[in-house]
Design the sequence.
């Protein structure tokens, strides 16, 4: 009898364990909750890590205008000898032979003997990346003072062999742009450019430039195609630019001034990059801003990739991590005027001063600017007072332009709370919060906006990234743990889309050899580029945002981290689809029964999965596809299916309604 009872008990236990039910996730596609803004998932561009010069801006020559503080930086005299600048009598920096007053330094070439070999060599940004079969536009501004001199321009590979050249005649006694085209016969990431002066005589030369012809949209002097493509693939709702701390400057003189970045290229005044020597562990003394990527080009980029522009302007307060140099309130007018004029530059008619300049630069139609940011990551009373001055002037003249304010560098604590209080009174349309914190913080903060005061301003999560080792730590990695933690956090941003109107990861770009700050969304070298695991998280969100959130529950509760499970769901009214986002932050596979009310009796959905069981894994330039999304299908019968969430995984499901 005892035996029979225990056998029955064993059968019951076994049967019971087999029959153990999956936990259930319920989604109701018939109950739209709140609108997801088209701007929800965007990007934040700052010229840090050689993101602009040496990166997105495709110029291959560094210090093309000899305006770096040390004018010969990046240049060598040819032929080379023991003494670096052996040709002091033949190659001289003149600081008044100006092409224009903002670009005063030029090289004077004095060649008294036709048989002498004299030239200049530039090795670009840690070498020049050249591709076989591609054409490169060489140009330089020249002025022939006497005699007969021509240019022989050569691209040489890392073995010092010529892999392309052109001859360029110099004929004009006035400043003229001389041009030539070189076709490369080899691919090499570490090329140099030689410019030899042939003949006898004297000339002045400036703005020595080499661009690939194969730029984004084939624009002359344009942007690097592979990098813009990675941005376009994100389908970002907006681009915030040009920074970041670069807007503020270490001092006010070094702040970003948009007016100096528009108009003719040769008239754009060079400025030191504030990340030049910011970090002792990653010094970059050769980091300057040429502004070849200036405000016109930023607006054009936004238009190209269908993103709303969000320019950020100096509020008269230099970086508070640096000098904190402050403009007195009574002297703030020129700063405010810059903001007013920028709106005119972007949107103004052709009869306005700045609208006319936009047209002259090739874009008569307005850029449709709808928002503007006052100050970057500023804090304290000094900031609030200055914000108020801007706000009054901007609201009075351009009531339809949305205003974005900051809250400082942190997302908690006294400084942050003071900003929250001030902004509740000052009422910007959007308030920019920054989160640089541990993966744990991101996992724990998926509920950050669940109980947020709905009457307050809207949130712009303007800079965020999980830090594997700590903020500004050079060992930070763009690994799976950080990316999956961000995916978990973002379920909370999307679930609260009535409060959170915009979000962007930071920083965007980094050169693999020349970065100052890590982690970053996209890494590149002189020839190639790749998306990090974090990039794919952003892409999966931005490409699958939906138009309205819908309820998603596990045992009647939101999916906010219980059992390491996170989730958000939406419908896309344009494509008539249900979109489900699920994140498993644990090292165990979790299976769920998924029930969706409001889809066809039989439905096939698409599943995009990003996962790796090793949460320390990350993509690299030599192995860029270690962790990338994969696609599969999922079948629904009467609205039901099962879903398996692998360790450290993020899944997006799209099902036709
Ligand atoms: O993204 C790098 C820097 O981090 C930004 O310039 C600044 O806004 C933040 O402190």
Sequence:
């Amino acid at each position: 009898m005892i035996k029979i009872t225990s056998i029955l008990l064993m059968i019951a236990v076994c049967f019971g364990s087999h029959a153990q039910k999956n936990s259930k996730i319920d989604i109701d596609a018939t109950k739209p909750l709140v609108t997801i803004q088209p701007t929800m998932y965007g990007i934040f561009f700052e010229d840090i890590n050689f993101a602009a010069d040496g990166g997105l801006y495709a110029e291959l020559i560094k210090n093309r205008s000899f305006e770096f503080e040390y004018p010969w930086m990046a240049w060598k005299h040819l032929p080379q000898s023991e003494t670096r600048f052996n040709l002091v009598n033949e190659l001289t920096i003149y600081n008044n032979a100006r092409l224009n007053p903002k670009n005063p330094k030029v090289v004077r070439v004095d060649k008294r003997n036709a048989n002498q070999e004299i030239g200049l060599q530039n090795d670009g940004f840690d070498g020049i990346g050249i591709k076989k079969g591609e054409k490169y536009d060489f140009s330089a501004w020249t002025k022939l003072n006497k005699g007969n001199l021509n240019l022989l321009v050569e691209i040489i590979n890392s073995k010092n062999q010529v892999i392309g050249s052109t001859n360029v005649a110099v004929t004009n006694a006035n400043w003229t742009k001389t041009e030539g085209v070189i076709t490369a016969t080899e691919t090499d990431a570490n090329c140099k450019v030689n410019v030899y002066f042939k003949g006898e005589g004297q000339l002045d030369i400036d703005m020595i430039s080499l661009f690939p012809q194969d730029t984004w949209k084939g624009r002359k002097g344009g942007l690097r195609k592979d990098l813009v493509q990675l941005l376009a693939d994100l389908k970002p709702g907006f681009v915030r630019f040009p920074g970041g701390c670069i807007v503020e400057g270490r001092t006010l003189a070094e702040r970003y001034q948009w007016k100096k970045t528009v108009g003719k290229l040769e008239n754009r005044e060079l400025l030191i990059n504030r990340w030049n020597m910011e970090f002792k562990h990653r010094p970059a003394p050769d980091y300057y801003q040429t502004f070849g990527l200036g405000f016109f080009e930023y607006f054009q980029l936004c238009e190209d990739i269908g993103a709303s522009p969000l320019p950020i302007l100096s509020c008269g307060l230099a970086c508070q991590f640096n000098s904190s140099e402050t403009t007195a309130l009574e002297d703030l007018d020129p700063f405010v005027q810059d903001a007013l004029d920028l709106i005119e530059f972007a949107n103004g008619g052709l009869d306005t001063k700045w609208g006319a300049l936009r047209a002259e630069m090739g874009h008569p139609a307005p850029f449709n600017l709808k928002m503007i940011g006052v100050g970057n990551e500023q804090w304290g009373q000094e900031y609030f007072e200055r914000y108020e001055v801007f706000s009054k002037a901007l609201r009075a003249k351009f009531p339809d332009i949305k205003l974005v304010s900051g809250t400082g560098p942190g997302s908690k604590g006294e400084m942050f709370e003071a900003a929250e209080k001030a902004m509740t009174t000052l009422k910007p349309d959007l308030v920019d919060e920054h989160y640089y914190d541990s993966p744990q913080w991101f996992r724990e903060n998926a509920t950050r906006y669940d109980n947020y005061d709905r009457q307050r301003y809207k949130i712009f999560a303007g800079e965020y990234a999980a830090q594997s080792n700590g903020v500004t730590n050079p060992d930070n990695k763009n690994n799976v743990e950080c990316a999956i933690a961000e995916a978990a956090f973002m379920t909370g941003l999307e679930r609260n889309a009535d409060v959170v109107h915009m979000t962007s990861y930071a920083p965007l770009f980094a050169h693999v050899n020349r970065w100052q700050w890590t982690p970053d969304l996209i890494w590149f070298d002189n020839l190639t580029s790749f998306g990090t695991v974090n990039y794919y998280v952003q892409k999966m969100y931005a490409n699958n945002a939906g138009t309205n959130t819908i309820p998603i529950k596990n045992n009647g509760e939101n999916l906010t981290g219980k059992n390491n499970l996170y989730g958000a769901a939406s419908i896309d009214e344009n494509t008539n689809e249900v979109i489900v986002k699920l994140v498993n932050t644990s090292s165990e596979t979790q299976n769920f029964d998924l029930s969706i009310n409001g889809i066809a009796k039989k439905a096939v959905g698409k599943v995009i999965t990003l996962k790796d069981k090793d949460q320390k894994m990350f993509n690299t330039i030599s192995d860029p596809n270690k962790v990338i999304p994969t696609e599969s299908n999922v079948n629904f019968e009467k609205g039901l299916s099962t879903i398996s969430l692998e360790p450290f995984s993020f899944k997006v499901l799209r099902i036709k309604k």
